[in-house]
Design brief:
By secondary structure, the protein is α+β, with helices and mostly antiparallel strands. It has 8 helices and 5 strands; from the N terminus they run H-H-E-E-H-H-E-H-E-E-H-H-H. The chain folds into 2 domains: 164 residues, Beta-Lactamase; 59 residues, Arc Repressor Mutant, subunit A, CATH 1.10.10.
Length: 230
């Protein structure tokens, strides 16, 4: 699959049919196919100073990132923070991150390429491409990787927005359901105790505290009990 095919495949991913994790995993797989010399690929995400590997093509790819997180420095972290492209042609002779480069070289990785991904204001990241030979990524390969990364950043940003919107919508639905059942329970209490809505809610709250249950759970139990009596 050439670069154009991978970009087309990336564009065909439907957000309503794919989870955010699956989307990120697909980005990593397609990047390895797009950048021909790539041995392994990972996607780093960085939020509030905390970095994690959101997708990887192998355990080695994840380890290469984790070693950088442990050290607190490395190309994937710097690319995430700056948005730049950082190419390390030969890890045997790297002077910027020697501790990480030595460990990566011992694991069989000879070169790396990290490209910043501007995803959201609060979330940034990097596409990390690791090569099995020195000088694996020539200028043409870097152009392909940067082009893919620019499309991937948009896809990941959209996936984040969709995931956040879906989560918010579900939270709102749950809140509406909770409110409805609590109102039903208040009505039952008001009918039985001949009390005000405020007094009914206060009673539900007290039962909630005494039983170590949420008010919604107390209300659901009361409504279910009332239904059984009918």
């Amino acid at each position: 699959m050439d670069a154009s095919d991978t970009l087309a495949e990336l564009g065909r991913i439907r957000l309503d049919e794919t989870s955010l994790d699956d989307m990120l995993g697909r980005v990593a797989d397609l990047a390895r196919q797009a950048v021909a010399p790539a041995r392994e690929v990972s996607v780093t995400l960085l939020r509030g100073g905390t970095a994690w590997t959101a997708a990887f093509t192998s355990e080695l790819a994840r380890d290469l990132d984790d070693w950088q997180y442990e050290l607190g420095r490395g190309p994937c972290l710097d690319a995430s923070a700056s948005g730049d492209t950082l190419s390390l042609p030969d890890l045997a002779d790297d002077q910027l991150w020697p501790a990480w480069a030595t460990r990566a070289h011992a694991a069989g990785v000879r070169s790396s390429l990290s490209i910043g991904l501007p995803i959201q204001a609060s979330v940034v990241g990097a596409l990390n491409v690791y090569g099995g030979t020195a000088n694996a990524f020539d200028p043409a390969a870097i152009v392909v990787a940067e082009r893919f990364a620019s499309y991937a950043a948009v896809a990941i940003a959209n996936a984040h927005l969709y995931d956040n919107a879906t989560t918010l919508a579900e939270q709102m639905r749950q809140a509406m359901r909770s409110r409805a059942v609590i109102e039903q329970a208040k009505g039952i209490v008001m009918g039985e105790r001949r009390c005000s809505p405020e007094e009914a809610f206060a009673l539900l709250s007290k039962v909630s505290q005494d039983s170590n249950l949420k008010v919604r759970e107390v209300a659901e139990g009361l409504v279910a009990k009332a239904v059984r009596r009918e």
